[in-house]
Amino acid sequence: MNLKNLKLVLVFIISTLATSAVYAQDEEVATAKQVVEKFQSELIAVMKDGKKLGYAGRYQKLSDPISNSHDLTKIARIVVGKEWEKLSEDQQQKLTDIFIRLSIASYAHNFKDYSGESFGFDSEEETTRGGVVVHTHLVIPNDKPVKFDYMLKEKGSSWRIINIIANGVSDLALKRSEYTTILQREGFDVLMSKINEKIDSYSKL
Amino acid sequence: MAINNTISLMSSNNISLKVSGAILVILVTLSGCATTAITEHAPNKDDPYENVNRVMYGFNDKLDDYIAAPVSKVYNKITPQFARTGIFNFFSNLKNINVVVNDALQAKFSQSVSDTGRFLINTTLGLGGFVDVATDTGLELNTEDFDQTLAVWGVPNGSYLVLPVIGPTTLRGIPGTAFDVAANPSTYLGMPIQLVSLLNARATAEGSLKFIDEAALDPYVFTRESFLQWRKNLVTDGKSDASLDFGDDLDELNSGDKKIATKSESIRKDVSKDNHKLELSAPLQ
């Protein structure tokens, strides 16, 4: 074995070790910051292939990354606030399911292509109630960066996103106002049909 | 500017004022009946006049659909992008005077100095404000207005209001806007120039308006919440994190949703397996 080959083998061994180390870390408990960064990199990857994938492809590719990084069941429950208790078990289930589909559909619709965007990490802080906020920003070429703050809570042994605050506007608060208002003014069926219309239009736009 | 236009438009024609007043009364009464018939829920604490505000929102929406949007479309067609950006920069630069004044009123003295620098650079090197050279030199655009100053002075924002033509504001926002209009040099530039400012502002807002249409389930609530949160974020200079934590709700949720979680998990898997079907199917009932 000459020196060049030895070098190649070494590089191979080191890179294999490095990858397995990453996998090992992945199987252990990922920190809140890792959960966010993994999700952001998966999102950017889908954006890069966005045009080629089309809406259905993006939906498919984002489905797992979103579900594994967000606690969508809990979010669905928070957005209807106290109205949750007034829903039947069947309605609660329907709402949770449709909410999961809406969340994935809105990502698939809004992150459809790539023009050089990238996420950057700013800081991480613990909240008084045992959550973690990961402060990041999205760099958009020729535009002001957008602040993205992720609020995470522990679910079992992993961290899950339960709220995203973009430039100070909380997605959870926004949705909660909308959902509770519709439930109170127009009822469950109208809320369901409005969400269905939204999913439908996301798939067509 | 918008206030001036509305007032002059209305006072110039008493008859139309009376007619629109009458229509307004009818609309308010109708909406009152309609909403009380549907529900009897506690009013939102930030929005006690929701029923009237919704009528105003509807009125503004129609006004936009039938007048502002078509005019803006023509304007967009005949004005190239670089001209629109230039015009936006010009008015934004004049507004810098407001920013500097409000910086000082809020005792943000170093920001006041950098915003003055921004104004001077853009007015001279930026050819009267048409080119935003300052941002490239690191002097970012700050947003400060008299409503924020009043907030810093301790004035609470008061109820959410939707004004005809002007749109979303709060009780505190009315004196805030009046002060800013008076302090902005573009107010004194005369009607045609103000009209260009309005047109350009509407054209610039196109993207945001489209986003509300796309994302909102209830556009009225969506607009109200994003407006109030955006204002709060400006007042606290991005340090507001009251909306970060939903602790009270989460504490209530810690038990009882396991069954739903597992069931949803399996449904999600089915959905992702069969995506094309989902995309092509009509809204599921």
Description:
The complex is a heterodimer of chains A (205) and B (285). Chain A has a five-stranded antiparallel beta sheet. Residues 18-26 of chain A have low confidence and may be disordered. Chain A is α+β, with helices and mostly antiparallel strands. Chain A is built from seven helices and five strands. In chain A, helix 2 runs antiparallel to helix 3 and helix 5 (89-110) packs parallel to helix 7. Chain B is mainly α and 285 residues long. Chain B has one domain (19-274). In chain B, 69% of the residues lie in helices and 3% in strands. Chain B has 14 helices and two strands; from the N terminus they run H-H-H-H-H-H-H-E-E-H-H-H-H-H-H-H. Chain B has helices spanning 2-11, 14-38, 50-78, 81-105, 109-124, 133-136, 146-152, 173-183, 191-204, 206-215, 219-235, 247-253, 258-273, 275-280, and strands spanning 160-163, 167-170. The longest helix of chain B is centred in the N-terminal third of the chain and has 29 residues, at 50-78. The relative contact order of chain B is 0.10. At the A-B interface, helix 3, helix 4, helix 5, strand 3 and strand 4 of A face helix 11, helix 12, helix 13 and helix 14 of B.
Question: Topology of this structure?
Answer:
The complex is a heterodimer of chains A (205) and B (285).
Chain A: H1 3-27, H2 32-48, H3 50-69, H4 72-79, H5 89-110, E1 118-126, E2 132-139, E3 146-155, E4 158-166, E5 169-170, H6 171-185, H7 188-204
Antiparallel strand pairs in A: 1-2, 2-3, 3-4, 4-5
Helix pairs in contact in A: 2-3, 3-5, 4-5, 5-7
Chain B: H1 2-11, H2 14-38, H3 50-78, H4 81-105, H5 109-124, H6 133-136, H7 146-152, E1 160-163, E2 167-170, H8 173-183, H9 191-204, H10 206-215, H11 219-235, H12 247-253, H13 258-273, H14 275-280
Antiparallel strand pairs in B: 1-2
